[in-house]
C-alpha cells in the first residue's frame, strides 16, 4: 500500500493545488501521472538532460529531482503555464520561427529554462544563454536555432523598448 498521508499544497501555473501523495514522490511523476500535465518530459531521471525542467519560484529545476515535500508552499510553472492561453511566450514564438526545435522532446525543458533567463534578462548574450542551458541536452538541433531564438527575443525587446 502506498502511503499518501502527505498532502502537497502548492501553486501550479497560478492555480492552487492540494493533492495527497507520498512525500518522496518526484514532481515529474506528480505532474505527469497525477495531474496529467504531460508537457514535462521524463528522460534521464537523474537531473542531467533537462527535459523535465520546471520553474520553482521562478528558478529552473529538474522536476525529476524535486520531491513533493520540497514543492510545498511553492509556485511551480510548467511548460503548460508558460504561454498566455493561445498566445505564445516570446521564447516559444522565436523557437518556432528560428528552428529551435526538431523532435520536440527537449523543447519544453529548453523553453522553461530560457523563459527564466529571459525574465531575468530580456537581452541575454549568447554566453549567458549557453550558461543557462548547460543543464539541457538536445540531440537534434545542434543548438544554433535555439541561440538564434534567444537572440531574436533580445532584439525584439530592444526594438520595442
Automatic annotation (TrEMBL):
<dbReference type="GO" id="GO:0016491">
    <property type="term" value="F:oxidoreductase activity"/>
</dbReference>
<keyword id="KW-0479">Metal-binding</keyword>
<dbReference type="InterPro" id="IPR036884">
    <property type="entry name" value="2Fe-2S-bd_dom_sf"/>
</dbReference>
<dbReference type="Pfam" id="PF00111">
    <property type="entry name" value="Fer2"/>
</dbReference>
<dbReference type="InterPro" id="IPR036010">
    <property type="entry name" value="2Fe-2S_ferredoxin-like_sf"/>
</dbReference>
<dbReference type="InterPro" id="IPR051452">
    <property type="entry name" value="Diverse_Oxidoreductases"/>
</dbReference>
<keyword id="KW-0408">Iron</keyword>
<dbReference type="GO" id="GO:0051537">
    <property type="term" value="F:2 iron, 2 sulfur cluster binding"/>
</dbReference>
<dbReference type="InterPro" id="IPR002888">
    <property type="entry name" value="2Fe-2S-bd"/>
</dbReference>
<feature type="domain" description="[2Fe-2S]-binding">
    <location>
        <begin position="78"/>
        <end position="151"/>
    </location>
</feature>
<keyword id="KW-0001">2Fe-2S</keyword>
<feature type="domain" description="2Fe-2S ferredoxin-type">
    <location>
        <begin position="12"/>
        <end position="64"/>
    </location>
</feature>
<dbReference type="GO" id="GO:0046872">
    <property type="term" value="F:metal ion binding"/>
</dbReference>
<protein>
    <submittedName>
        <fullName>Xanthine dehydrogenase subunit E</fullName>
    </submittedName>
</protein>
<dbReference type="InterPro" id="IPR001041">
    <property type="entry name" value="2Fe-2S_ferredoxin-type"/>
</dbReference>
<keyword id="KW-0560">Oxidoreductase</keyword>
<dbReference type="InterPro" id="IPR012675">
    <property type="entry name" value="Beta-grasp_dom_sf"/>
</dbReference>
<keyword id="KW-0411">Iron-sulfur</keyword>
<dbReference type="Pfam" id="PF01799">
    <property type="entry name" value="Fer2_2"/>
</dbReference>
<dbReference type="InterPro" id="IPR006058">
    <property type="entry name" value="2Fe2S_fd_BS"/>
</dbReference>
